[in-house]
Write a structure and sequence with these properties.
The protein is of the alpha+beta class. The protein contains eight helices and seven strands, in the order H-H-H-E-E-E-E-H-E-H-E-H-E-H-H.
């Protein structure tokens, strides 16, 4: 079954509606930051840095060019009546803190209880990436993933748990390397049925589900 979802045109604008800066403007901004940091952008080792950083940003923030709902549009109904839990564990997350623009690195666990259809598992990972490859806070990222799966697939329940380290607190500020943050979003049966929630949490890393069983 295919659900028709029109993909948003995000190639020429930013979410605020303003015109997207050109590559030349982006590279000029990076040169300004190098100068502000005390460097000389014209020295040999930094000559190509603005272009490299701009190219890296295209990869880091490719999620702005993706429509997460469209990624889930192609679904399958011929599943021989399968209605048990579908779980995709240990999806690597590479995101950036919207407050300090430094990396958030971790993993996500995603589950849903099919109602009438399922989706290819790679699409679940791509939805995670589509939201992670934007400026984020972990709480919002967790909710966005769960809410989108719930809206498009309309399953009997959705669960998302994310565990991640934030370089905004490990390389600056309080300097607490090794600390990790765990967030969860439980919808439908995962919220309402303790046994369903426990089954999901038993399938993922025990370290990620501490305190979430109740």
């Amino acid at each position: 079954m295919n659900i028709e979802i029109k993909k948003a045109d995000v190639s020429s604008r930013v979410p605020s509606g303003e015109a997207r800066p050109s590559r030349a403007e982006a590279e000029a901004a990076i040169r300004t930051l190098l100068l502000w940091a005390g460097e000389d952008p014209s020295r040999e080792g930094l000559l190509d840095t603005p272009a490299r950083v701009a190219k890296a940003y295209e990869e880091f923030f490719s999620g702005y060019r993706e429509d997460p709902e469209a990624l889930l549009a192609r679904t399958f109904e011929e599943v021989e009546g399968y209605d048990e839990m579908v779980v995709l564990r240990d999806i690597r997350i590479e995101s950036h803190c919207e407050h300090h623009m430094v990396p958030i690195i971790g993993r996500a666990h995603v589950a849903y209880l099919p109602q009438t259809r399922v989706v290819g598992i790679s699409k679940l990972a791509r939805v995670v990436d589509a939201y992670a490859k934007r400026f984020q806070i972990q709480e919002k990222l967790t909710a966005q993933i769960a809410n989108t799966i719930n809206t498009v697939l309309q399953p009997r329940g959705v669960a998302v748990v994310i565990e991640a380290g934030h370089q905004c607190m490990s390389t600056r500020g309080v300097h607490k390397p090794g600390a990790s943050m765990v967030t969860s979003r439980m919808l439908g049966a995962f919220r309402d049925d303790p046994s369903t929630r426990r089954e999901f949490l038993a399938m993922i890393s025990p370290r990620s589900c501490a305190g979430l069983e109740a």
